[in-house]
Amino acid sequence: MADSNYITGRPMPAKLISEMNRRGSAGRATSWHVSKKVWIELNSGSSKKYKIAGFEKRTVQDFYDNSDGGGRIVPKPIVNSVSISTTGTNGAMRKATVSFTAYSIDQLKKIQKAYFIPGLSCLVQWGWNIKSSDGSAVKRFPSRTFKSFFDGQKQINDWIEQQENCMDAMFGVISDFNWSFDPGSKSYSCEIVIDSPGKAYISGPVTVANKQGAGCKNKDNEEKGDGSGNWMRVALKDIAEKNMTENKPWKDGSVYLGGTLSMFEDGKEDASWWRRNIGKFFSRGTNHYVTWNWFESTIVSGMSPISPKHDAVKNLGSISDETPLKNWGKKHVWRLDSSKSILKIPKSKPYASSDPWVCLLPGFFHWDNGNAGDYESGWLSGLKNDEGITAAPKVSDGAPEGTMYLGRVLLNTYFLWQTYLDCKTIDEYVMKVAKSVNEVCGDFWNLELVDDPSDPSTMRVVDVNYVPSVDAPEIKIYGNTSARNWGMSTNIPQALRHSIMMATQKASSTGPKNTDEPQGSMLIYAKGITDDMLQKQELDETPNAQEKCTKPDQPKKDAGAPASNPSKSYKAALANLADDRDDETVDEAKGALKNYANRNAPPPEQGGTVIPIGFEGEFDGIGGLTWGMLFKADQVGPVLEGVEYKLQTTQIKHTVSQKDWTTTIETALRI
């Protein structure tokens, strides 16, 4: 059953759709269009609070105070504008820039204590003064103290819905500020930047000191040790490695954390503490694996600060049962939790990770019978099957057909250490790990680091190619509409242009592609349209003259199976990988997987995919919109009839001034 609340594919809420369509059907002469005005309000979590209001002021006291210090009556500080933008490839992280003016040095001193301190929590809200449904007043969200960002965002979202989406707000942390003085007007122009808390913290350095007191060995001859050194070393060596026992799953209560696997392999080229376990060239080595869930909780979220006033991690509604975070009683202010992120994979074997030095996929091990096939794989001698690994939860159990859960992927600790050495920030580290996993698992996914719209302190790694099969409601664009302008545009990255142009002229939707690059559903988009000269293209799979080897080397086992049987070739490559992990067998497995996927329906194309062609529209300001929402727009979409599509929000921008509030929606087309 499809999850209508999944992060990358939530139907746009019915009440929000109803509000947008009601505004359009009301016509331009109604009181809504004639009488509505904008208000803005800014408040921080500082112990020295100083609320700054925007417009809709009604009394003299609303406008002036005597805070000049010299007895001069001056205007109260006023918010001039708010700009809400989204950052990241898919607009999944919010950022607010708030501009306001102060009129005395006394006001500026109060503002400095309330807003000019990076790291303070801050709430900016804005909206219309009346509702479109009945003209009643829109109520501002009352000032209050939250238990967590999750608690605050939930209350804010509920309030926005109660106000019929005629207001919106952003709750985050102050990350930047500036101010300047104008002698002519004797005023101070001020500006602050508010970031989502997850983004603000995860951009920090990855090289942090350890927590101390881990109680694990840090030298071979020590009985206890103090876990000294960098936290990454402590986590991987002193915690993960020391807690793993051969042939036994490593668990925290009911939560599986990792295990070991012994295999024939090239010696790892480093002088680190792995050498004593791995051995020398072409020897059997013991590899340690941890789940993605453990990696992002202990290694990544473990670097998050704690606050005595914040709610405990285990009490947050956004925490999954499959991550160690669920047992954490500490009060971490942000976390990374991708335990339930869904990735598309082939629906049946053969399929496996192409490099056990990077990761393994429980349920899709490269030595499994369905992968190694009927070949003399040699894995009984090349691999020492370990219950600590085979007992791991299968990546696809409980997931929708043709998908798996990222949180169950097993990561090689050597790979995690080597990747860490090449990174400076936490987000860089997380994404390098994610992209390497994607590469050895078929390069099927478009992994991005995103904010959870329901909990701005929680970051997730998601495959933006995956969207559950859910209905998409329709916004009325033509006729009476709340859209001020709209259209379609492309935003095709340079790296994808070749793939997309090739895809529109592919020979067929079922045969081989005409490039090894992902093509998505561009052929469907261009259904029935062909170029007179460039149509029906296919990938050239036969050698030209002088491209054949005259004395070919003896191939390993059946790795030389003809291209006409890509499944057989792929199984042979996985058998060779099980026999001995070296650069050659890894490269062979990667190539065979790509060829096999090329001949079949690649996972990114199962259930539809994203095309970088989208609808853009500017609307009367409306609240409650987040990235990932799905909808349709009448008379907008593929120009060809009979093509089923959805529009997915990728960028939501709010521009609020003294006179107006507009909301701009940018989307990608899903076919």
Helix content: 10-25%
Number of strands: 28
Quaternary structure state of the chains depicted:
single chain
Cα end-to-end separation: 20 Å
Instruction: Characterize the largest beta sheet: strand count, sense, and whether it forms a barrel.
Output: 15 strands, mixed
Number of helices: 18
Give average pLDDT, whole number.
Answer: 80
The domain count comes to: 3
β-strand percent reads 15-25%
Shape call: globular
Using only C-alpha atoms, the radius of gyration works out to 28 Å
Structural class label: alpha+beta
The stretches of 5 or more residues where confidence is low (pLDDT under 50) are 218-227, 271-282, 376-380, 554-562
How would you sum up this structure, described in words?
The chain is α+β, with helices and mostly antiparallel strands and 671 residues long. The chain has three domains: 11-202, no CATH class; 231-463, no CATH class; 494-542 and 555-605, no CATH class. The protein is 24% helix and 25% strand. The protein contains 18 helices and 28 strands. The strands form five sheets. The protein has a 15-stranded mixed β-sheet that branches. Strands 11, 12, 13, 16, 17 and 19 form a six-stranded antiparallel β-sheet that branches. Strand 9 (167-182) and strand 10 (187-195) form a beta hairpin. Helix 17 runs antiparallel to helix 18 (583-599). The model is unreliable at 218-227, 271-282, 376-380 and 554-562 (pLDDT under 50).
Task: Give a short summary of the structure.
With 671 residues, the protein is of the alpha+beta class. Helices cover 24% and strands 25% of the residues.
